[in-house]
């Protein structure tokens, strides 16, 4: 009897969750319509909303897609966990996009495959720990090559190096997480380590990824134009150069935002709410690659890492 009740409650909670998600999707579509009426935006922060994304990326991506004609309705996203919070799920469910999601946890992928949206849409979910040596094969082996609508990179570590290594696809829109703790004045990234795990490398979990300037420079090398970040200061958005005018003509300014997220942890894994520039002191002794000079540096050795706007 207890098992029957438990299963009934599980089904009931699933029904409630589905109804909530339907309501959120509808609200997202209504916001899309309103955003697309705007003739001009202050910056990308003006059209943020979250249905499944963590920091407003759903609204930004939906608006970018709406500005571009005949963009492929396909995506690839790395580091999706169980896909509950993600940058591409809104487009999957609201516009019937198709795509590939990758995560290092087999348990997370199993949870994705069990969801109703998995059979309702053309979604491929694979468990793989991504590095520079396997990323192109993972993409091509799963049927993706050349043109893709969106690529979203968020692996909390080798993000810069993995984007640099990708050469089998040319996404129209690219989203990549940046580490605002590294500041906005220098092109900095962690040294490449294939099995990088930010929780193991340093207890603070603040030592990962690359600075916004590192990603902007890499984008230029790969023929991508930086069009701004979300207002939380964690994800940078790029479009292929040939599409840039369609976006830039509607933006008052291109802004990369600093981050106020206080996720630093102590040696016991407890959040310690370290604010602002104090976060850099927690990891100031750790090595970084200055991509402009090619030298190894430390935040402690740099006179200034934040611009006046970011300070």
Walk me through the structure.
The protein has 311 residues and is of the alpha/beta class. The chain has a single domain, classed as Vaccinia Virus protein VP39 (Rossmann fold, 3-Layer(aba) Sandwich). Helices cover 33% and strands 17% of the residues. The strands form two sheets. A seven-stranded mixed sheet has the order 3-2-1-4-5-8-7, sandwiched between helices. Strands 6-9-10 form a three-stranded antiparallel sheet. A hairpin with a 5-residue loop joins β7 (224-229) and β8 (235-240). α1 packs across α2 (57-67). It is globular, with a radius of gyration of 20 Å.
What does the secondary structure layout of this molecule look like, with pairings?
Layout: H1 2-36, H2 57-67, E1 74-78, H3 89-94, E2 98-103, H4 106-114, H5 116-120, E3 123-127, H6 135-141, E4 146-153, H7 159-165, E5 169-177, E6 188-189, H8 198-201, H9 212-221, E7 224-229, E8 235-240, H10 244-248, H11 278-282, E9 288-290, E10 296-297
Parallel strand pairs: 1-2, 1-4, 2-3, 4-5
Antiparallel strand pairs: 5-8, 6-9, 7-8, 9-10
Helix pairs in contact: 1-2
Q: What is the first-to-last residue Cα distance?
A: 61 Å
Strand arrangement, largest sheet? 3-2-1-4-5-8-7
Average of pLDDT: 94
Please indicate the percent range of residues in DSSP E strands (runs of 2 or more): 15-25%
Radius of gyration: 20 Å
Total domain units: 1
Short synopsis of the structure:
By secondary structure, the chain is of the alpha/beta class.
Q: Which keywords apply here?
A:
311 residues; Rossmann fold; 7-stranded mixed β-sheet; 3-stranded antiparallel β-sheet
